[in-house]
């Protein structure tokens, strides 16, 4: 248990303070940079900062869930999802830098809160743990769809990243469903949406 805690603590530090790396090519690696006005660049930057923050939260959430998952298959599903979220971190982090910005100052706060939620979800049992994963990914997928409609039409680099992220998130939701995820109660789903809205508003600007 102590070894696991040390490993997870190290993972948290790397998530927050070390550059992320991607095993897959970045989705925008072959896409030319577009000409963006200053306003368009700032809006794209804000959206990509929000997406990066969401991936930080996902790392913490799945880390907490994997720590408390009982079923090996559920634990492996959570770790697989977390691995792909690291790639998302790398993609969004690089894009933020390209747009002239930096990640959200609130990332440590969101990470801590998401880790606590993940641990709590796992304690409830594997079907609820997987249900939380499924609902999270559905909400993130809808969130990314909204960003695709908001990003400047000519910003093909950001759009390529967000599109691949959305596709990955929906696959994670399908995986959770196939493993027996329970449907979360409507009030809890509403609370998750409200929490995501607060995080989005704060991270867009800072």
Automatic annotation (TrEMBL):
Annotated positions binding Fe cation 2: 85, 137, 169, 172
Catalytic activity: a 5-methoxy-2-methyl-3-(all-trans-polyprenyl)benzene-1,4-diol + AH2 + O2 = a 3-demethylubiquinol + A + H2O
Cofactor comment text: Binds 2 iron ions per subunit.
Main location: membrane
Pfam families assigned to the protein according to its UniProt record, in alphabetical order: COQ7
EC number: 1.14.99.60
MF GO annotations: monooxygenase activity
Keyword Membrane: yes
Positions annotated to bind Fe cation 1: 55, 85, 88, 169
Cofactor dependency: Fe cation
Enzyme class, UniProt record, top EC level: oxidoreductase
PANTHER family: 5-DEMETHOXYUBIQUINONE HYDROXYLASE, MITOCHONDRIAL (PTHR11237:SF4), COENZYME Q10 BIOSYNTHESIS PROTEIN 7 (PTHR11237)
Classification via HAMAP family: COQ7
UniProt function note: Catalyzes the hydroxylation of 2-nonaprenyl-3-methyl-6-methoxy-1,4-benzoquinol during ubiquinone biosynthesis.
Family the UniProt entry places it in: Belongs to the COQ7 family.
Protein name in UniProt: 3-demethoxyubiquinol 3-hydroxylase
């Amino acid at each position: 248990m102590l070894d696991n805690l040390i490993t997870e603590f190290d993972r948290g530090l790397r998530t927050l303070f070390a550059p992320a790396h991607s095993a897959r090519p970045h989705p925008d690696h072959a896409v030319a940079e577009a000409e963006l006005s200053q306003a368009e660049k700032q809006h794209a930057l804000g959206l990509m900062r929000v997406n990066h923050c969401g991936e930080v939260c996902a790392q913490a959430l799945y880390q907490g869930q994997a720590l408390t998952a009982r079923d090996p298959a559920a634990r492996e599903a959570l770790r697989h999802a977390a691995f792909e979220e690291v790639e998302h971190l790398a993609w969004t982090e690089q894009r933020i830098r390209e747009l002239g910005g930096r990640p959200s100052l609130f990332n440590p706060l969101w990470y801590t809160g998401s880790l606590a939620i993940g641990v709590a979800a796992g304690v409830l049992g594997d079907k609820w743990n997987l249900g939380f994963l499924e609902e999270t990914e559905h909400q993130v997928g809808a969130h990314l769809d909204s960003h695709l409609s908001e990003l400047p039409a000519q910003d093909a680099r950001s759009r390529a990243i967000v599109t691949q992220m959305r596709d990955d998130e929906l696959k994670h939701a399908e995986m959770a469903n196939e493993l027996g995820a329970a449907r979360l109660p409507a009030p809890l789903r509403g609370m998750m949406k409200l929490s995501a809205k607060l995080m989005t508003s704060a991270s867009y600007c800072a």
